[in-house]
Amino acid sequence: MKARVHVMLKNGVLDPQGEAVRHALGAMGFDKVTGVRQGKVIDLDLVEGATEADVAEMCEKLLANTVIERYEIELV
């Protein structure tokens, strides 16, 4: 089984990397972009019997800083 975890900064948390990308896109002539939020995707290979709850525990303890980040789990 595989799981894909999407980690993004929570709304309202300043995203300096996203802002740098937005600025660079504007400098390259892509002036239709008004905002960028940058995150990360983590792919996990899991043993048979692993559950979404197991992945959520991994996120809470290591994969996401839940003070400033939110995560979504996708089982694939």
UniProtKB/TrEMBL annotation:
PANTHER family: PHOSPHORIBOSYLFORMYLGLYCINAMIDINE SYNTHASE SUBUNIT PURS
Transmembrane segments: none
UniProt keyword terms in alphabetical order: ATP-binding, Cytoplasm, Ligase, Nucleotide-binding, Purine biosynthesis
Quaternary structure and interacting proteins, as annotated: Part of the FGAM synthase complex composed of 1 PurL, 1 PurQ and 2 PurS subunits.
Matches recorded under NCBIfam families: phosphoribosylformylglycinamidine synthase subunit PurS, PRK05974.1
EC number of the protein: 6.3.5.3
Gene field: purS
Name of protein: Phosphoribosylformylglycinamidine synthase subunit PurS
